[in-house]
Amino acid sequence: MPWNESNRMDERLKLVARLLDGDSMSSVCRDFGISRKTGYKIFNRYKESGLDGLNDRSRNPRRHANKIPFQIERTILRLKREYPTWGAPKIRAKLMREYPMIKPPAKSTVHAILARNGLTKKKRKRGYKAQGTTLSDPHNPNGLWCTDFKGEFMLGNKKYCYPLTITDYSSRYLLACEGLESVKEMGTFPHFERVFKEYGLPQAIRSDNGVPFASPHALFGLSKLAVWWLRLGIAIERIKPGNPQQNGRHERMHLTLKQDATKPASFNFLQQQDRFDDFIEVYNNERPHQAIDMKYPGELYTPSTREYRPPEPPEYPYHDKTIQITNCGRICIDGRKIFLSTVFANEYVGIREVDDKIWLVSFMNYDLGFFDENEGRVQPANNPFLPRLLPMSPV
User: Fold this and answer.
1) Distance between CA 20 and CA 192 in Å, rounded?
2) Which of 31, 160, 271, 332 would staple 266 via disulfide (CB 3.0–4.6 Å)?
3) Cα–Cα distance, 171 to 97 (Å, whole number)
4) pLDDT tens string 123-176
5) Distance between CA 262 and CA 328 in Å, rounded?
């Protein structure tokens, strides 16, 4: 059957609907141009999780927390034009005097409005500069996994495919190759969770410094994905920027993947994923690898003994308080809100008073930084993830 211009979720829904109507798996897969293996994979995900197994969650915010009436925003911009040297505090105070009947926005909101309209002085950002970490060289399966996104390519239906790949460093075993619609962070979580459930947990994961594995504007370059790995007891390794050879084994697999499974590209995501699944089977169990004495990766790889379980909240017995970070990345203490980072949203941290009204913030075994009664945000400590993240041990 010819495919319509629809995304992969629509295609999966149509496939499941036909199976629920009583059509045989063979005929449905034949009409959709995919293997029965892929068909059963899609149908089993539907039976396990319902529609959530077919559709990604919306990434749009449910509400806009700082949305204010346009009349107030227009007044703020007028005051800035009249008094160009004034900052957010003075403009807010003037707004309160001229319009005492309205609830004034916070100073940070006024500043955000000015910044959005290019009316603030740009300060040099003290952003995180990626440096790379110490890299390990384990000789046993699951001592280190490597992950990356192979370069995107266009499918026949004009949609871009971004293959997420995961390999075992020691055995070269290809754990996953999933064609995704983007490299956005939230879309990667289900695939890593599936791999963790199937193969267990590695000691460490190596990646580059790009999204979603790292976040250039967050504390120590951490991303939500990296924080989740840390919660699971997985160390994070990052290659030095501009040095893809530090993940050379994985990059070599990408070259084979490109030659064998993407040229020419399939028409849609389901057909392309079918080719990826076939590639995984051949790569792991049929293709001799020169680097491992012409053996198959499947002959060398064994799943990890570290079983995946959703992590329990960390405990901080040697800290003064355990605090859950708000959804917007803040520490709430004694009526104050101290910004940490949104990558720690809803996570638990420990705080400890190390000097008079100076507090240390820790996440698990990592000291993140300090704040005092005058600071509105955590000032970073020395990067705890350099040069060594966690001691490496064979599985």
Assistant:
1) 29
2) 271
3) 70
4) 444 445 666 677 889 999 999 999 999 889 999 999 999 999 999 999 999 999
5) 40
13: three-class secondary structure by DSSP? helix
Among residues 193, 137, 146, the alpha carbon closest in space to that of 167 is found at: 146
My answer on whether 237 and 188 are in the same domain is yes
Q: What is the largest CA-CA distance in the chain?
A: 80
Q: Which of 15, 304, 313, 23 is CA-nearest to residue 143?
A: 304
DSSP letters along 111-173, please?
Answer: HHHHHHTT-SPPPPP--------------STTS-EEEEEPPPEE-TTS-EEEEEEEEETTT--
Are 258 and 149 within one domain?
Answer: yes
Considering its fold, how many domains does the chain have in total?
Answer: 4
- 385, 133 in Cβ contact below 8 A? yes
The answer to whether the CB of 75 falls within 8 A of the CB of 97 is no
**Residues 218-228, mean pLDDT to the nearest whole number:** 92
> What is the domain extent for residue 245?
145-300
Nearest to 233 by CA among 311, 167, 176, 170: 311
User: Is residue 207 within 8 Å of residue 238, measured between CB atoms?
Assistant: yes
CA distance 147 to 189: 13
Per-residue pLDDT at 30 exceeds 50: yes
3-state secondary structure of 394: coil
Kindly list the distances between the CA atom of residue 278 and the CA atoms of 172, 265, 273, 282, 321, in Å, as whole numbers in the listed order. Answer: 17, 14, 9, 6, 52
Three-state DSSP state, 241: coil
Same domain flag for 194 and 238: yes
Say if 45 falls within a structural domain.
Answer: yes
> Across all residues in the chain, what is the average pLDDT?
85
